[in-house]
Amino acid sequence: MISPILFWTVAFMTVIPALGLLFARKPVYVAVAVITAMVGLAGAYVALEAPFLGIVQIVVYTGAVMMLFVFVLMLVGVDQRESLKETIAGQKWLAFALSIGVGALLISVVSRLALSVDKTPVTGEPQAIAKELFGPYVLVVETLGFLLVTAAVGALVLTHVPRLFPKRTQKEVQAARIAAGANPVNKTFPGVFARHNALDAPALDPNGEPIEESVSRVLKARQQTVDSIQYRDDNRARRRELGAKEDEA
Amino acid sequence: MSPINFVYLASVLFAIGAATVLLRRNAIIAFMGVELMLNAANLALVAFSRMQGNVNGQIMAFFVMVVAAAEVVVGLAIIIAVFRARQTISLDEPAELKG
After folding, report:
1. Of A78, A98, A133, which marks where a domain is finished?
2. Cα–Cα 20 to 30 A to B49, which of A34, A129, A223, B96?
3. Regarding predicted confidence, which is higher, B55 or A225?
4. Which domain holds residue A229?
5. Is the whole model's pTM more than 0.80, yes or no?
6. Which of residues A43, A78, A113 is at a domain's end?
């Protein structure tokens, strides 16, 4: 018989994360909760004399299916906002009532079942499963093989995007950029000549005025740039000093 | 403790999965609800298999897993195709077929 502690552990490990599916805001949290529930279900399978299925559950569900979900979440952006506006009035309460009704119906039907429990169960070890899979069910296994190949090809076809425009070469990209009036040479590097060469200080032109485009616009957006006026003034003062010295000599 | 308790657990999980599909608007979360319902069905199959004392229920659960894997691949591909076309995966948006 199954130990009650094991059953309640599995029950809490599956039902509480499953509730996260209903109440968690962010899709990534939901994915992690479902992974926990799947691991709990694998424990239930092992408890029910199905060790092979328990391992397959972990490999297929937590290892492949849920990882695929997380990859797709990454592709569509994890911060997809969920609109909370109801398009059908009272849909939330109707849905709650319906699902509680379904659960109550299932539980009441199951409670009326009079099933005897076999005292000597067959353990679902790989050998026992294989004997059935490749014996009476071999045709189903082959059909499932077809299904998997079709699914893989279907996914490729659905996600494939035909190229609408011919691919542009580097030369064409460059010619288009020049035609659009871009500066053909590099932008000035940041840093003030002979005075300060940090990335956050704009370069000075020969007149001593700062060149704003020499600083990365990322630093500008973060407001991490240094005001270069002080360097300009420093430079002028230094030049004046040198000029004065030259005058003396 | 009788294995029938796991069938009760499967009923509860199925109801939660159904509620998720009905309530959530994010297509990926609703899809995870479908996965939870499939898993609940699997749990019931395995529990019945244990009660019957043979592995037929486990074989059925195995087949359900394979079909679910194929379904996930195609379903997520459809979600990506929809996202490419309209930059959203909300289930409320694609309502253009409505009369």
Report:
1. A78
2. A34
3. B55
4. 187-248
5. no
6. A78
Using the CB atoms, write b or e for A66-88: b if 16+ within 10 Å: bebbbebbeebeeebeeeeeeee
Give ipTM to 2 decimals. 0.90
Domain B4-86, CATH among 1.10.1740.10, 3.65.10.10, 1.10.287.3510, 2.70.150.10: 1.10.287.3510
Asked if B69 and A60 come within 8 Å (Cβ–Cβ), the reply is yes
pLDDT at A85: 66
**What pLDDT is recorded for position A11?**
93
A144-196 tens-digit pLDDT: 999 999 999 999 998 888 888 888 899 998 899 889 888 777 777 777 665 66
Predicted local distance difference test score (pLDDT) of residue A80: 66
Query: Nearest Cα to B9, choosing from A41, A67, A209?
Result: A41
Which residue(s) pair with A210 in the sheet? A204
Structure confidence by residue, pLDDT tens digits, A107-131: 999 998 887 887 777 888 889 899 9
Selected for mutation to probe chain B from A19, A22, A48, A140 (highest B CB count within 10 Å) is A48
Asked whether B13 and A11 are in contact (CB, 8 A), the reply is no
Cβ distance B22 to A11 less than 8 Å, yes or no, reads no
> Does A207 reach chain B within 8 Å, measured CB to CB?
no
Looking at the domain assignment, is residue A169 inside a domain?
no
Domains identified in chain A, total number: 2
Tell me which chain B residues have a C-beta less than 8 angstroms from the C-beta of A128.
55
Distance CA B13, CA A14 (A): 8
The verdict on a CB contact (< 8 Å) between B14 and A118 is no
Shortest alpha-carbon distance between residue A166 and chain B (Å) = 20
CA atoms within 13 A on the CB side of A36: 19
